[in-house]
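Hi C.,

You asked whether I'd gotten around to modeling the 167-residue construct. I have! Everything is below, sequence then structure, no commentary in between.
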Amino acid sequence: MNGGAVITDGKSTVKSFVTAGCLYPKAAIVDPELTVSVPPDQTVYGICDLITHVTESYFNGFDATPLQDRFAEGVMLTAMEWGPKAVADGHDIEARAQVQWASVVALNGWVQAGTLSPYPVHMIEHSLSAHHDIAHGAGLAVVGPAWMRYAGDTLLVAREGHWSRHC
């Protein structure tokens, strides 16, 4: 849903991120019925990934993106409402459809438009999973909460300097 990719060299345990316009898909098949066989743990990892994509631009420290903030909040709330339903019942097509749509919006750049989003949690997680055999979303679930605490504390302190908003 975006023009980014991660390439892993298993021998050297190096992960590299690349982004290019030619990587954007011309079309994408988004059909919740095709996901019913996805195990609960992998469903959770996908939800962690979509929420992380949103929070990385949400906690950016700038006040100038109120529409994007509301958009991000809607995506996160949708993931938190429907995600547990999709995990509890892998055949709940409505729940999977809502999670898929949240994922499309989280990863295609709409939420990040006009925000600063260098993807710090993803970069840290790539280093972690390059050295340990863990799923990407599981690594994000480990790193994300600590980063959000750091980002929240940093923005709270910076608020005195009039450049932050969230917290």
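If it helps when you're writing up: The first helix runs from residue 40 to 58.

Thanks,
B.
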